[in-house]
Input
Amino acid sequence: MPYEEIIYNVTDYVATITLNRPNRLNAWTRLMAEEVREAMLNAADDSGVRVIVLTGAGRGFCAGADMAELKSASELDGPALDGNITAEQNVSVLTGTKAEDEREGRKIAGIRPDFRKRYSYLLSVPKPIIAAINGPAAGLGMIMTLYCDLRFASEAARFSTAFSRRGLIAEHGISWLLPRIVGVSNALDLLFSARVVEAQEALRIGLVNRVFPDDRLMESVLSYAADLAASVSPRSIRIMKGQVSEAIFQTLAEASEDADAEMLLSIKSEDFREGVAHFLEKRSPAFTGK
Output
């Protein structure tokens, strides 16, 4: 499908989704939310995609919610009059895609409700999602990076939760997610102060995995993604991502039991046979994801 506010490209099993409002530092809109979700779920369904990269056009990743739409939301108060929507409805339109947590026609059996929310659906995408953070990532922009599996940043990357400086709160599950990434004290610091965190500090506190020079970010991210796509079993990644996501809600015993069951299934898989064969035959793997 044609997109207005993102660019979607697939090359050598890697899908790249680029937020494409560079003149607005890729500020988040209702349309952008819908298009990113559509692209992510299309990539999830596409057998020709094994890795997904999310990045921004121009000099920013995403500066957060579009301030023009936020201003419109703040000017609405109380019940709807003369067919206008309420402030609550307007904010819902801006920050989500639809009121429903599940995408119509795309309900995935076995996916827990936690991973069917407006942005947490990214955790249910059965393929690795890498955020290539090329500049400022604030508010909703920062939230989108947190829901990605890996975060690679350029030296120009800057992070801010932003919410406390707008009279808002910890949105869209960030109060659950951020402490699990950087620890409780660091999370509270970032949420309370909404201060700007530069790339090297983000690396030090575990907010990002790696930092690259500005002119090498996409080259480095795409090289990493290409290696995953070519050298690693898609089935293994799919199962492991699911294991890690589910383990957050499990005891150690439950996670171990699930691992034992998945190991038996892995040994029967095509990718396991190929994993052994290519190692013994000293050749590149040809994984099918089955």
User: Anything to note?
Assistant: The radius of gyration is 20 Å. Confidence is low (pLDDT under 50) at residues 74-108.
